[in-house]
Amino acid sequence: MLEIRGLTATIDDKTILNGIDLTIPPGEIHAVMGPNGAGKSTLSYVLSGREGYEVTAGSVTFYGQDLLAMEPEERAAAGLFLAFQYPVELPGVGNANFLRTALNAIHRRRGEPELDAVQFLKLARGEVKKLAMSEDMLKRNVNVGFSGGEKKRNEVLQMAVLKPKLAILDETDSGLDIDALRIVADGVNAQRGPGFSSLIITHYQRLLDYIVPDRVHVLAEGRILRSGGPELAHELEARGYAGLVGESAEAA
Amino acid sequence: MPAVAETLDTVRAVTGSTYKWGFETDLEMDIAPKGLSEDTIRLISARKEEPEWLLAWRLKAFAAWKTMAEPHWAKATYPRIDYQDIHYYAAPKKGGGPKSLDEVDPELLRTYEKLGIPLREQALLAGVEPSPDDRLPMAVDAVFDSVSVATTFQETLAKQGVIFCPISEAVREHPDLVREYLGSVVPAGDNFYAALNSAVFTDGSFVYIPKGVKCPMELSTYFRINARNTGQFERTLVIAAEGASVSYLEGCTAPMRDENQLHAAVVELIALDDAKIKYSTVQNWYPGDANGKGGIYNFVTKRGACRGARSRISWTQVETGSAITWKYPSCILQGDGSVGEFYSVAVTNNCQQADTGTKMIHIGRNTNSTIIAKTISAGRSDSTYRGLVRMMPKAQNARNFTQCDSLLIGDQCGAHTVPYIESRNATAKIEHEATTSKIAEDQMFYCRSRGLSQEDAVGLIVNGFCKDVLKELPMEFAVEAQKLLAISLEGSVG
Ligand SMILES: Nc1ncnc2c1ncn2[C@@H]1O[C@H](COP(=O)(O)OP(=O)(O)OP(=O)(O)O)[C@@H](O)[C@H]1O
Ligand SMILES: [Mg+2]
User: Fold this and answer.
1) Chain B interface includes A115 (CB < 8 A)
2) CA distance B490 to B365
3) Which residues of A touch B447 (CB under 8 A)?
4) Own/partner pairs for B390-393, CB < 8 Å, 24+ apart?
5) A169 and A201 in contact (C-beta within 8 Å)?
6) Testing the interface with A: which of B441, B446, B479 to mutate, by most A Cβ within 10 A?
């Protein structure tokens, strides 16, 4: 259960998030849509603990814990995962080594047994297969020389291996071809269940055809301006944000 | 950048107290009075029961040294060294000279055990297949202050004609070989520190691999400075005859002390036709504390001669220790088609200063050299890569490739690259690439968002940065080196 209350955050004294209220119950998938520069990625970074953002008001609890008080790695161990809009390259760091180090770090923090190389490879290979990735990906350096689509798939692979309770997917669908989109959606749907929830940031209705969300929210001007069911995404696809953003501007 | 700033704090928080090898061993010692004179040299030579020619050679080196000035072109600042305030000979009273392990002072054996150095010839029980998990047996020469205290597996090696022994023993048992090769790569008067070493060298290892023999195990020397106010001046000589090959590695540590201690070694390698020498170093002398108090001054001359055609010498070094490092393992590529390689990781933290690199002197035709130098600086440290590639007139079609990469952690450290290139042959090709980078905030955050602690994250990134060098180390050493990188930067390296 993720509960965001009145979350306000600034970068260099510039307010980007301006009172976000959002609750994602366990097992639910929520989509967040909104114009470029609205603050969607900022929200994902603040939730996962990136430095450089100052939270000036509000609170975030995650399964009862004060998320904002935790280090990024503690949030990961608590079950939070962020699939980056722009995945980062780590030269010289093997993908398999990276993933195993991450998984074992999380296990250590939780007091769970660590996986040895054999156990890990078995797990990772299984997930690689499900995502129709080539096994080569495990041997290559993290995201180095990956195509845009490969990077996104690699994020989903990490999610599948780390098995978070809440996955934030920041435009994971951007740059994916049609087949990859379906595979990635299958990857997310496979996790669906009472112990998994997701916050999906996207610009396109198309992804939501494959991953049908429980709720859709519109984030603009640093706030959730509207929420609704899956039909809201269709409405946005047809009408755009113009009307919405305008309405709020009038109200302000 | 905030993440990096925090990493830096972590690095800063770690002081000399993390140097895990800083303990002292309490032994009865035979120590020469402080000071350097002909008498000191005569005393060392007498203690080692050396032949007249070697004493003469030492005295000549001393005469040369007296005319030389301490070099100060390296990018390092430190107070003047008082060469008369140092003990030039210190040996444990029990345990000097080549002996069976049973005779070695148990206190010494415990010291090496604590350091993780295998001095017992375990695991080679008849009929027992070593499991893949077992460490491969490794022959070790343990040098404690001025003397070798034990050399393992000598008999096993002797069966194949391999000589592996303290150099003082080689002087007695194999005088012709020593006389032929000693000083043939690094002449006694080569430079200030080499001359000093030639005058007062105490022990070190001697390796001879006969024609056509592939040395059946890793050879290794482990240097330990223990005594106070002593210098360590070891001398290593490795000869690979025609078609021979050997992998040799050295490690070193010292107790934590407030005063600086001088280490001035000379290593000479000779590779004849088709011979291969792989020389790996994990240098972990005490670096001094967080404020730069104490630590080893490491002024070392290492040079390999590829005398034979198609011979090959590879230097691999992981330099994490010492307050000051001044070291340029070099290759003289004399034989046609010979190959020289230099793979280096130099890590400096706190107040450490490192000026290190290599020289590749291409003399023969079709000679080939590769230089890969990775420099990591943290804290207030300063690191310089200084390299020379020289193509001589006869070096037809010689090739060099150089890559120097620096990684900075924090904004108070420095990294410098000083490449000297001299080509006197128009067919020679020289390529040089250099990069400087910082650990990016997004890389740190990416790792941490996946559950890695800051320390694990820096470790992973730094190891990734060094991968091209670490993979050149013998397998088991590579793991040690990774751990050492982690400890040296603590939380910023893994
Ligand atoms: N480090 C920063 N310094 C200054 N401004 C920033 C910084 N990071 C983000 N911003 C600004 O914050 C606003 C929100 O950015 P954010 O990346 O969250 O938008 P987004 O909703 O994810 O947009 P997109 O759909 O294009 O991905 C933008 O105006 C952006 O320019
Ligand atoms: Mg975005």
Assistant:
1) no
2) 45
3) 90, 98, 102
4) B390/B359, B390/B360, B390/B361, B390/B362, B390/B421, B390/B422, B390/B423, B390/B424, B391/B362, B391/B422, B391/B423, B391/B424, B391/B425, B391/B428, B391/B430, B392/B361, B392/B362, B392/B363, B392/B424, B392/B425, B393/B424, B393/B425
5) yes
6) B446
CB A49 within 8 A of CB A72: yes
Give the type of residue at A60. Answer: V
Q: What DSSP string describes B102-159? A: GGS-HHHHHHHHHTT---S-TT--TTPPPPTTSPPPEEEEEEETTEEEEE-SHHHHHT
Taking each helix axis as running N to C, give the angle between helix A95-110 and helix B454-470, from 0 to 180 degrees, rounded to the nearest 10. Answer: 150
Kindly state the tokens that stand for B31: 């120590």
Among B419, B414, B456, CA closest to B438: B414
What element of type H or E holds B245?
strand B245-253
pTM of the model: 0.81
Chain-centre distance of CA B475, in angstroms?
18
**Residue B340 CA to chain centroid, in angstroms?**
17
Residues linked to residue A66 through DSSP beta bridges, in sequence order: A61
3-state secondary structure of B172: helix
Domains of chain A (ranges; CATH) run 2-251 (3.40.50.300)
Kindly state the helix (H) or strand (E) to which residue B299 belongs, with its residue range: strand B295-306
B466 closest CA partner among B382, B399, B403, B388 = B403
Neighbours of A44 (CB within 10 A): 22
Q: Phi and psi dihedrals of A74, rounded to 5?
A: -70, -35
> B139 CB contacts (<8 Å, ≥6 apart)?
B151, B152, B153, B154, B156, B157, B164, B217, B218, B219, B220
Cα–Cα distance measured from residue B163 to residue B208, given in angstroms and rounded to the nearest whole number: 5
Do B452 and A75 count as a contact with CB atoms less than 8 A apart? Answer: no
Nearest-angstrom CA–CA distance, B59 and B41? 7
Helices A242-251 and A231-239 pack at an angle, to 10 degrees, of 90
**Please, are residues B203 and B237 in contact by the beta-carbon 8 Å criterion?**
no
Cα angle: B72, vertex B74, B76; to 5 degrees: 90
Q: Which residues of A touch B6 (CB under 8 A)?
A: 51
Q: Are strands B147-151 and B163-166 parallel, antiparallel or unpaired?
A: unpaired
The count of other CB atoms within 10 Å of the CB of residue B1 is 17
Task: Name the residue at shortest CA distance from atom 13 of ligand 1.
Answer: A37
Q: Confirm or reject contact between A42 and chain B (CB < 8 A).
A: no
Give which of B6, B449, B479 to mutate to test A binding, by max A Cβ within 10 Å: B449
What's the complex ipTM? 0.95
Per-residue pLDDT in tens (0 to 9) along chain B, 494 residues: 333 333 334 333 333 346 666 666 666 667 778 888 999 899 989 988 999 999 999 999 999 999 999 888 878 788 888 888 888 887 766 544 445 566 666 666 666 666 665 555 543 333 333 333 344 556 777 777 666 666 777 888 889 999 999 898 999 999 999 999 999 999 999 999 999 999 999 888 899 999 999 998 888 887 776 666 677 888 999 999 999 999 998 886 666 666 777 888 999 999 999 999 999 988 777 777 777 777 888 889 999 999 999 999 999 988 888 788 888 999 999 999 999 999 998 888 888 888 889 999 999 999 999 999 998 888 888 888 999 999 999 999 999 999 999 988 878 888 888 999 999 999 999 999 998 888 888 999 999 999 999 888 888 888 888 888 888 887 767 777 777 777 667 634 32
Residue B248: its H or E element = strand B245-253
* DSSP per-residue letters across A81-99: EEE-SSPPP-TT-BHHHHH
CB < 8 Å to B463, chain A: 92-93
Q: How far lies B43's CA from each of A104, A215, B47, in Å? A: 58, 88, 6
Q: Provide the residue count of chain A.
A: 252
